[in-house]
Amino acid sequence: MENVVTNPQVYEYSIMHRAALFLLFFFLFIFNFTHAQDATLSRKARETYEKAQEAWQARKLPDAIALFEKVLEQEPNSYDANLRLAQIYELQRNADLTKKYYSKAIQLRPSTPQSAAALQWMGRYHFEAQRYDSAQVYFERALALFPAKSSLARLAEKAIASSKFAREAVKNPLSIQKRSLGDTINFLNTQYFPVMTADNETLIFTGLTENRDENIYTTHRIKGGSGADRWDVPEEISASINTTNNEGTCSVSADGRTLVFTACNRPDGYGSCDLYIARKEGKDWSAPLNLGQEINTRDWESQPSLSADGHMLYFASDRKGGQGKRDIWVTKLDEKGKWTAPKNLGAHINTADEENAPFIHANGRTLFYASNGFPGMGGFDIFISQRTDTIWSQSINIGYPINTIADQVGLFIASDGQKAYYTDDGSEGKGRSLLYTFNLPQQVKDMIVPTRYAKGKVFDKKTNTPLASAIDLFDLKTQQKVGEFSSDGKTGSFLAVLNNGGEYAFYVSKTGYLFKSLSFTVNDSTSFVDLDIPLEAIEKDRAEVLNNIFFKTGEYSLDEKSKVELGKMVDFLGKNKTVKIEISGHTDDVGSDTENMELSRQRAQSVQQYLQQSGIVADRITFKGYGETQPVAPNDSQENRQKNRRIEWRIL
C-alpha cells in the first residue's frame, strides 16, 4: 500500500519531511567539505579538483560532474572526488551512479567519519530494495562513525531498528487483497483521505481537480446492485463548503451530519491551515465556521478525525508544547458546547519526529495514525494504539504490506471492523492517486472492537412530523452515559454508534414531549438496530413505558440498573413542574390474579417512593397496580410476557 505525496495542502507534512532530509544531506556536505583534500593528488589533479569545487559551490552541477570525473581519470582513487560525485548524483536522484561512487569512497576510507553519510545512504539503498540484512550492516557501520548521542546517531539507530522490524514483517505478511473503488469514484487524477458514515452508506473524500483546486466530494452506496462496493456518481459536498480555495482532509461524525475539514490561507484563518466545522440539516450544509483560536493557532492544524458522536476531535499540529515536530492532539466539546484546550496525546503516540493523519475508530478507543518516529517499513507507517480511560497503549506498527517503504497515510477502518479504505499512489503506475479498499486481515481485526449502530427516525406520534430531539445512550451495566446524539430537525433521522456486547438504555427527549426510553442488547449477530421512535406530546392521558426499570422475578425492590431511568424521570418532572403523573404496574398471566395485582401495585409504589425521595412532591405522583388486566400482547411467548411485565407513566 503506497502513498506518494501529490498535494501541497493536504500532504504538506511529507514536503517538510523531504526538506528535512535535504537539510540533513546538506549538513553532511558541509561536514565533508571542511576536511582536508587528498594529500596524494598530483598538482594537475588538485587544480582540476579546485575548479570542480568552485562549480559545485556555484551549484553548476553539470560542470562540477565533468570536472570531478576528470579528476578521477587522473587519480581513480581520489576519495574526495568519489564522495563529491556520489553527493551530486544523490541530489539528482540517480541511484545507480550514487551507489557506484559511494561504494568506491567507502572502499577507499571505510572508517573515516566522512564516510558515515555514504554508509547511511547505502543502508537506505538496500533497505528500499528489501535487502534488510545488508541495510542493517551499513547502518551499523554508519552509527559507529557518528558522534555519540547526536541526531545523526539517533537516525542511524532508528534505521537499524527498522531493518530488524522490516525483515520480520516481510517474513510474516498480512493477507491483503486490495481492490480499486472503480472509475466512478476515481474520476479525478487525484483523490484521497476517504471517510465514511457508520452505516457504510455514505463515502466522503478529497479530490484535486486539473486546476489544482482541492474540494470535498460525497457519494452513496448503490443498494441492490451487484458487487459490495458499487457507488453512485460523486458530487461536490456543498457550495457552502467548497470554494475556489482549497478544502480537504475532512472527517465526518457517524451520522454524517457534522463535518470537520481543513482549509488554508482563508481570510478568517489564524494560521497557515485551520480546522473548520459545518453541520447538516436535511440535505443542506451550514456555512463552515472556523473552530476558533482555542483550536487553531498561528501554526499548522490539519487532518482532523471526529469521534462517532462528534464530541471528540483528534488532529495533527506543529503547535508549541508537543513531543516533537508534528504531533497528534485531542480536544472535546464541554457541557456548554465549546471545544476545550487541546491536549497532546503523549509519548506513547507522539515522538521527536512527525505524527499525522489520526483516525479514531467508531468504537472511540482505537486510534490509527501515521508516524516516521518509530521503527517501521520506511517513511511514514500506520500505527495503532488503544485507549483505556485516559491512557493510550504503546503504539504498534500495523504491519506489512499495509505499510511499505513508501509513506502510508489516511487509513480509514469501517465501523464494523471489516474493511479498510485508503489512498494508493503506485498500483496503476500512472502517477494517479486512487481510492482502494481491502478486507482487514484477522490479525488486525483482533485489535479492533467492532461497533454496531442504531438507526431510525424520531417523529410526533399524532402528526408524523419529524422532530429534532436529544438522544442519550447509557451503558446499563456501568450506568454511565456513553454517547450523545441528536435527530435531524428536517427528517427526524438519527444514527447512534453502539459498542459490541453492550446492554443499552436509549433515551429520546424533546421539550414539550414525554421522553421515550428503550432498551436493547447488541451482539455479534446484530449489525444494527432499526428504531423508528414516535414521541407523545405532553397532553392528558398520554402514556409511555419505562423500559429500563428492572426487578428480580417475583420481587418489587428496584434493581440498581433502574437508577438511570429513574434519574431521567426525575429530570423530566423537574423541567415540567406543573405535570402530574400516574405510575402504573403491570404483570403477565403467570401466577394468581391476586398475587399479580399486589405485585404490580408494590412495583408501582417502589417507583413512586423513589421519585418522592428524589425531591418530587407527593401530590404530583399517584401509583396503581393493574396486575394482568391490561396486557399489550398475548401471553403466548416469553417475549410477549416480557412486554406485559412493565411500568408505565401517564399524564393526569
From TrEMBL:
Keyword Membrane: yes
GO cellular component: cell outer membrane
Residue windows of the TPR repeats: 79-112, 116-149
Boundaries of every OmpA-like domain copy: 538-652
Localization in the cell: Cell outer membrane
UniProt keyword annotations, A-Z: Cell outer membrane, Membrane, TPR repeat
Pfam assignment, any one: PD40
Protein name, per record: OmpA family protein
Source organism of this protein record: Dyadobacter fanqingshengii
